[in-house]
Specification:
single chain; alpha+beta; about 30% helix; eight-stranded antiparallel beta sheet
Length: about 260
């Protein structure tokens, strides 16, 4: 992770040199508007670089099981978190515990994420009821800090922050409403502190912010039961290309979606 395209290609060649295959190394490249991929199917390995320009760096590495999207099984090193390609969905949960994220289902294969481990596990089949769902591939990325970027209620990856105080982070409106009874007094107090600081700094927009935020704070304090309705989107990049926005997906999956 963090390597540029040249370093990523060097790594692929070094890994290939350590295998028994006599076939010439075939490196594939695919570019999208916001990212690009460099892959070697015989190694079972693909890397995503962002941005798509020459300054791109690897932010996700994909490790494949045998036959997944035409890749051989990755075997250059042990799989992360003690996983094995023979593990099924129930084995993964038994080893790693409950995931912090779930995605897929319906028309898409299911998958689960462990953001504090920097690991997404993508399965072959589409049913959540399939306890013997084989692993298709793994996405490996930089783990999230347990104390940052996590929902203050359930510890999943946060996608929003409270629009009033902008201090508490949540993964969903459901978690925000669940936390509101305990957060509302702190929220109003912190909002007022933030506004006083803005006024002291002489910001031109402070008066508009004061009017809007005090109105929202008044509702929260006096009514005592209504959570703020406005929720701001935090900087959210789940390491997807532009076509999708839910998990870490390789180029082969994007081709299947077209």
């Amino acid at each position: 992770l963090g390597a540029d395209e040249t370093a990523a290609e060097v790594l692929l060649r070094e890994l290939a040199a350590g295998t028994d295959t006599e076939e010439p190394l075939q490196i594939e490249r695919k570019a999208f508007s916001d990212c690009k991929y460099i892959s070697c199917k015989p190694l079972g390995l693909s890397m995503r670089l962002k941005p798509a320009s020459a300054s791109g760096r690897v932010d996700v590495t994909f490790l494949y099981s045998e036959g997944a999207d035409g890749f051989s099984a990755y075997s250059a090193s042990p799989l992360p978190a003690g996983l094995q390609w023979s593990d099924r969905s129930r084995d993964v949960v038994k080893k790693l515990g409950e995931p912090s994220d779930k995605f897929g289902g319906g028309n898409l294969p299911v998958g689960i994420g462990y953001e504090v481990l920097g690991l997404d596990v993508h399965f072959q089949n589409k049913s959540w009821d399939d306890a013997k769902n084989p692993i298709k591939f793994l996405s490996v990325y930089r783990p999230l800090d347990r104390l940052c970027g996590m929902c203050s209620v359930c510890a999943k990856q946060a996608r929003f922050c409270c629009a009033q105080c902008q201090l508490e982070s949540y993964c969903s409106t459901a978690c925000q409403r669940k936390a509101w009874s305990g957060h509302r007094e702190v929220c109003a107090r912190d909002s007022n502190k933030r506004l006083r600081s803005a006024l002291a700094a002489g910001k031109q927009t402070a008066q508009r912010a004061l009017t809007g935020s005090l109105a929202a704070a008044g509702v929260a304090v006096e009514a005592g039961a209504v959570a703020p309705q406005a929720i701001e989107v935090m900087g959210e990049d789940r390491r997807w290309p532009a076509a999708t926005k839910e998990c870490h997906v390789p180029a082969s999956s994007l081709d299947a979606m077209d």
